[in-house]
């Protein structure tokens, strides 16, 4: 894939190993990935990176999961958001996210959700 044609995925994950694993999975599948470790950093890079899909943990430093999601929706209302989290509240909220995954990650299902989000 050429640089201009790659789907851009923003990963918001504070755990170093989880962030690296998500990045590796996505890059292996040909996505252009930017990863950040806090909600505030995610908001700062949204416009510069202009992601096609956002993958976020529900518990990251700087903003609550709900607040981060609302900020993303304000700036990028049509960008699909996929939550990967071990936080119970990530699965009990009524936020309109594309998909939710518990940690540890079901990689084949995650890859399918990313591909489906990209296709829309």
Describe the structure.
This protein is an alpha/beta fold and 120 residues long. The protein has a single domain (8-119), classed as Response regulator (Rossmann fold, 3-Layer(aba) Sandwich), CATH 3.40.50. The protein has five helices and seven strands. It starts with 7 loop residues before the first strand and ends with a helix. The relative contact order is 0.18. The mean pLDDT is 92.
Entry summary:
With 120 residues, the chain is α/β, with parallel strands linked by helices. It contains five helices and seven strands, in the order βαβαβββαβαβα.
Describe the structure using short key phrases.
120 residues, alpha/beta, Rossmann fold, 5 helices, 7 strands
Order of helices and strands: EHEHEEEHEHEH
User: How many angstroms separate the termini?
Assistant: 19 Å
Number of strands: 7
Major sheet, described briefly?
5 strands, parallel
- Number of helical regions: 5
Q: Note poorly predicted spans.
A: none
CATH fold-type name: Rossmann fold
Radius of gyration, taken over Cα atoms and rounded to an integer in Å: 13 Å
Tell me the name of the CATH homologous superfamily.
Response regulator
CATH architecture: 3-Layer(aba) Sandwich
Topology record:
Elements: E1 8-12, H1 16-28, E2 32-36, H2 39-49, E3 53-56, E4 59-60, E5 63-64, H3 65-75, E6 81-85, H4 89-92, E7 99-102, H5 107-119
Parallel strand pairs: 1-2, 1-3, 3-6, 6-7
Antiparallel strand pairs: 4-5
């Amino acid at each position: 894939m050429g640089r201009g044609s790659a789907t851009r995925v923003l990963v918001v994950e504070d755990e170093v190993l989880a962030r690296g694993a998500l990045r590796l999975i996505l890059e292996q599948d040909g996505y252009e990935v930017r990863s950040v470790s806090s909600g505030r950093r995610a908001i700062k890079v949204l416009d510069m990176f202009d992601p096609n899909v956002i993958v976020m943990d529900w518990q990251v430093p700087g903003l609550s999961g709900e607040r981060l999601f609302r900020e993303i929706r304000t700036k990028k209302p049509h960008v699909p958001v996929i939550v990967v989290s071990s936080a119970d509240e990530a699965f009990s909220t009524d936020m309109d996210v594309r998909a939710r995954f518990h940690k540890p990650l079901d990689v084949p299902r995650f890859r399918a959700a990313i591909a489906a989000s990209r296709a829309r």
